Known about the structure:
Distance between the termini: 7 Å
CATH topology: Alpha-Beta Plaits
Helix content: under 10%
Radius of gyration: 10 Å
Structural class: mainly beta
Number of domains: 1
Strand content: 15-25%
CATH class: Alpha Beta
CATH architecture: 2-Layer Sandwich
Mean pLDDT: 97
Order of helices and strands: EEEHE
Amino acid sequence: MAHRINEDCINCGACLPECPTESITEGEDIYVIDESTCVDCQGHYDEPQCVAVCPVDCIFKV
């Protein structure tokens, strides 16, 4: 199941280096998750790392 970043993103970049599939990129106004490559960190970690490090809780499952 993929994740998405909503408009509450503060562009801190904490999520970017945590993604094992490099599905997160810097968008025009906020960071963006490529839902076609996001694997919810399955096979890499026990929980989605982007969600774990996000200071404003703006990342949610689609």
